[in-house]
Design a protein that fits this description.
alpha/beta, Rossmann fold
């Protein structure tokens, strides 16, 4: 069976973790399954990322479907000068049709695509994908992700069309499910935790941390900053309110006996000139200026990053999947977020009060919360460990449902 994975990448480490999880979980349940990635969104994949992922772009040659067609697989693997996937709009639908013809089923792991916050342009192309699979009677599944809100008519209608074209639609939290059910005529929405709770890390977390110059035998607090939050916050460099708040928390943690590990969760390819999360890691490391601070500034796999996070004692994160990497490893977490997905995630563990909105970030309150968790981190770890088996069991049930659907459609 050929399975298309949409919405993943190796740029965003959460998307990479979900790609790996889909491969691992469906391979166990569907022997002989072959996986492919598709390019339904421009610039989703780059040459280095395709090779690194170990999952090929679907080898779809548009041929005569439109005049200036190219084989995207060849473009991805052999282009030397910063490959781009700007498919002309008149050919995009032909490409989507060719994708749907080539594979037997598709899953989407976009994470957070359909909402007023993301707008209609980000979701429109995926609607065409879901509809192409529906026309062919091939299964299409939205794996657990955040949805809504849907105040805008255009986004609301696009979401309805996308869900109508899908065989299974999963929301990963109660708020998302309620947003969807409020706009859908039929309630084919199911709720389940993010699939990355099942993602398996590398096994050498302490060694990786030691290579960065920290002592894995001493307590470590991880900070995972987010360029999108930085861009939404006033100020530049160290004077950015978000960054200055993280610096203040970092100093308090070090005063409380912690070493600091600064971890990116967006790592752009080498030819990209715009800054990614590593820019913030360097900025914070320079501002903190201590031998007890280490920053990851090279490209790391999602497995390596989760292994390092799992060897820490606390996560202060603005990257959603950095928080999942922590919680799924039993590590207490405090979040600085910008959407309902953050309190819903920490609410699984009774920790929703530990989410801070970046728009109203109060450094005093943030420091107080972080230090309270730091001082009681053993108690928080015990509570997370008590709830985690249930969360993982519900995540695993998603793949049981998906595998059964795919088997029945392919028999």
């Amino acid at each position: 069976m050929r399975i298309l994975i949409l919405g993943s990448s190796t740029i965003n480490k959460g998307a990479e973790a979900m790609l790996r999880t889909v491969q691992a979980e469906l391979s166990r349940r569907i022997p002989g399954a072959k996986f492919f990635i598709g390019d339904h969104r421009a610039r989703q994949w780059h040459a280095e990322g395709v090779v690194k992922a170990g999952v090929p772009l679907a080898p779809v040659d548009l041929g005569s479907r439109f005049k200036q067609a190219r084989t995207l697989t060849a473009h991805a693997l052999h282009a030397q000068e910063g490959p781009r996937y700007w498919i002309r709009e008149r050919g995009r639908l032909g490409y989507i049709d060719a994708l749907a013809d080539f594979v037997d089923a598709a899953v989407d792991v976009s994470g957070f695509l359909f909402s007023d916050q993301r707008g209609e342009r980000t979701s429109e192309r995926l609607v065409h994908v879901a509809e192409a699979f529906s026309r062919r009677g091939k299964p299409f599944v939205f794996l657990p992700q955040a949805w809504g809100p849907f105040e805008g008519q255009a986004v609301r209608e696009l979401t309805r069309r996308a869900c109508a074209g899908a065989d299974l639609v999963f929301a990963r939290d109660t708020t998302s499910r309620e947003h969807l059910e409020a706009i859908l005529k039929s309630t084919n929405v199911e709720q389940a935790p993010d699939i990355a709770f099942l993602f398996q890390p590398a096994t050498n977390g302490p060694e990786l941390i030691a290579e960065l110059g920290l002592d894995p035998e001493r307590p470590i607090a991880a900070i995972s900053p987010n360029m999108r939050v930085y861009e939404r916050t006033d100020g530049e460099g160290e004077n950015n309110h978000y960054c200055s708040s993280l610096v203040r928390v970092g100093r308090e943690l070090m005063a409380g006996g912690a070493q600091l590990l600064l971890l990116p969760h967006e790592i752009l390819p080498p030819k990209e000139s715009r800054p990614d999360d590593r820019y913030l890691c360097r900025l914070l490391a320079d501002a903190l200026n201590s031998a007890d601070v280490a920053a990851v500034t090279d490209d790391r796999t999602a497995e390596e990053l989760k292994a390092m996070i799992g060897a820490c004692d606390l996560m202060l994160g603005s990257r959603f999947h950095a928080l999942i990497a922590a919680l799924s490893s039993g590590v207490p977490a405090v979040a600085i977020g910008w959407a309902h997905k953050y309190p819903e995630l920490l609410g699984e563990f009774g920790m929703e009060r530990l989410v801070f909105d970046h728009d109203a970030l109060a450094p005093d309150a943030l420091v107080h919360a972080v230090m309270q968790v730091w001082d009681a981190r053993g108690d928080y770890r015990a509570e997370i460990s008590k709830r985690l088996p249930n969360v993982k069991s519900r995540s695993a049930a998603v793949f049981k449902r998906v595998a059964a659907l795919f088997h029945s459609s392919h028999s």
